[in-house]
Design brief:
The protein has helices at residues 15-28, 75-81, 114-120, 127-139, 144-154, 163-176; strands at 2-10, 32-39, 47-55, 67-72, 85-94, 108-112. It is α/β, with parallel strands linked by helices and 179 residues long. The protein has a 6-stranded mixed β-sheet, sandwiched between helices. The longest helix is centred in the N-terminal third of the chain and has 14 residues, at 15-28. The radius of gyration is 15 Å and the shape is globular. The two termini are 22 Å apart.
Length: 179
Amino acid sequence: MLQEIIFAGFGGQGVLSMGQILAYAAMIENREVSWMPSYGPEMRGGTANCITIISDEIISSPIISKFDTAIVLNQPSLDKFENAVTPGGILIYDTNNIIKAPSRTDIKVYAISATEEAVKLKNSRVMNVIILGSLLKLRGTVKVESVMAALKKVLPERYHHLLPLNESALMKGMELVKS
């Protein structure tokens, strides 16, 4: 098993957190992991991305330019990374910040209304967890239980009361995927 994933969007959308949570969950499952964040000096509001690689074997390099999966949360990220998805790969995007939808026909594209669903859950900050749930449904990268264990490690203890909300957000993301 080898999955090479790019998460991209504006700073503050939880892009780096998505990749980190997935990486921790994979480590819990004893997989090889690489997590490489990239962001500008402005962070919140600027563009940010991270590459998360998960494998059953040793990862030779964290620096790659083609991805099995791209998760994009804004138009600049879609414009930059749509062509970096390998043919047959998956592109998942949040419908809220995308003006021009992806046009490729050699990849599977999933439009997820994560921002709208996060508002329905009364916490816009779980938008990224909804998207992560969609990824889990499509790729089966890690188990939901591993993601929840990873969230306990990543979230400061003062936010542990939000773990049930995050679990609901994961489930909602899984529900939103239309086969």
